[in-house]
């Protein structure tokens, strides 16, 4: 299969403006930085992937700069000369030599799948065994930092029929104020929407015991990562007493973490993120662990652009049940696109056409314009 040998692996850091500041407990995004991964093969086919994180090093152990450097220096040389059409062999080769770095691996695995899909004329979802749906319901994150503005934004999303699930980023402020903020939004939206919160690890267990009860009383459906990611025993204790479901997000930094959390009964819901597991195939390993343990699934995001969002979407399309839907809204947070046709969001869902690979084409001019020099 010498014609599909990998010739080059390239990475580009891209800085894109956001529609508004996006406030998380650990960081406020004023723009988002994507790492685009391009795998060029001898048969003329190019696979594209994305390795994106949030807020430099404030969210996880890899930054855009370290992702680029680690792919360029350590992973690209392992892939050049290998057969691009064997994704298993290529990723196992990386896995043997690279211990962690799931974000970097995710972009590479996505690019290899994109290339193979283009080669065979099949969508990535079909390479992953076949899709069982063509669209995914998508939540929106309200994170302007202002209650009235968040309610206005939610009303607009409901009117547009774009979202009817809202996730609120809390944890940066006083717990009592944050809970009042969430309660006010749920009161305004009532039964028209599911309202959830993401604390992004900001509370300690004592605060969370009371906070989870109060949030549940206010009608909040789901509480994401209320305490530190390493406090797995605490998460299990909270999951037993919280009347609202608890979701593990940052606690899952690998497929092996997902297994440990499932074995410990730490949380009834898992956030699935390609970046935290090492790609669209890797995230399905975590999904299958969760399914075997009776844990509910949620299709998460690291606020990727269109490439990373579609890579995750193709994996999520194959799952039997996504009880808590997805939050694959990343492209909608950005004011600019680097692909020729932006993903389509309609009737509360992201639609994923049955096109070869991820189904996207890079817009070379836009990419060059926004690429960091
Ligand atoms: O879930 C996170 O922690 C990260 C991300 C996902 C949605 C959003 O607004 O931020
Ligand atoms: Mn989260």
Automatic annotation (TrEMBL):
Pfam families: MR_MLE_C (PF13378), MR_MLE_N (PF02746). Gene3D superfamilies: Enolase-like C-terminal domain, Enolase-like, N-terminal domain. InterPro entries: Chloromuconate_cycloisomerase (IPR013370), Enolase-like_C_sf (IPR036849), Enolase-like_N (IPR029017), Enolase_C-like (IPR029065), Mandel_Rmase/mucon_lact_enz_CS (IPR018110), Mandelate_racemase_C (IPR013342), Mandelate_racemase_N_dom (IPR013341). CDD domains: MLE. This is Muconate cycloisomerase family protein. Pathway: Aromatic compound metabolism. Belongs to the mandelate racemase/muconate lactonizing enzyme family. Its cofactor is Mn(2+). SMART domains: MR_MLE. Residues 148-245 form the Mandelate racemase/muconate lactonizing enzyme C-terminal domain. Keywords: Aromatic hydrocarbons catabolism, Isomerase, Manganese, Metal-binding.
């Amino acid at each position: 299969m010498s014609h599909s040998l990998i010739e080059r692996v390239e990475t580009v850091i891209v800085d894109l403006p956001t529609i508004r500041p996006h406030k998380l407990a650990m960081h406020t995004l004023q723009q988002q930085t994507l790492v685009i991964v391009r795998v060029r093969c001898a048969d003329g086919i190019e696979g594209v992937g994305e390795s994106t994180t949030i807020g430099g090093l404030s969210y996880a152990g890899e930054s855009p700069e370290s992702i680029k450097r680690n792919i360029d220096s350590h992973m690209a040389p392992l892939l050049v000369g290998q057969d691009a059409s064997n994704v298993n062999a290529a990723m196992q080769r990386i896995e043997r030599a690279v211990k962690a770095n799931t974000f970097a691996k995710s972009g590479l695995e996505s690019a290899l799948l994109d290339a193979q899909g283009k080669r065979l004329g099949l969508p990535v979802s079909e390479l992953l065994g076949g899709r069982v749906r063509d669209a995914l319901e998508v939540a929106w994150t309200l994170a302007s930092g202002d209650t009235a503005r968040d309610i206005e934004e939610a009303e607009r999303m409901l009117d547009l029929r774009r979202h009817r699930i809202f996730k609120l980023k809390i944890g940066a402020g006083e717990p009592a104020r944050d809970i009042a903020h969430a309660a006010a939004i749920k009161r305004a939206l009532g039964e028209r929407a599911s309202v959830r919160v993401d604390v992004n690890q900001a509370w300690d267990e004592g605060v969370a015991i009371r906070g989870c009860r109060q949030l549940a009383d206010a009608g909040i459906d789901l509480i994401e990562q209320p305490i530190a990611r390493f406090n797995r025993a605490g998460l299990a204790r909270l999951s037993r007493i919280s009347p609202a479901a608890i979701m593990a997000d940052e606690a899952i930094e690998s497929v092996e973490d997902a297994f440990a959390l499932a074995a410990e009964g730490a949380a009834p819901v898992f956030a699935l993120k390609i970046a935290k597991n090492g790609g669209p195939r890797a995230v399905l390993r975590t999904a299958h662990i969760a399914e075997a343990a009776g844990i509910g699934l949620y299709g998460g995001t690291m606020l990727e652009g269109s490439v990373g969002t579609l890579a995750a979407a193709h994996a999520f399309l194959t799952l039997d049940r996504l009880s808590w839907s997805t939050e694959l809204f990343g492209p909608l947070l950005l004011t600019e696109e680097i692909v020729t046709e932006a993903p389509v969001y309609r009737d509360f869902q992201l639609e994923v056409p049955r096109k070869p690979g991820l189904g996207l084409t890079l817009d070379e001019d836009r990419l060059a314009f926004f690429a960091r020099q």
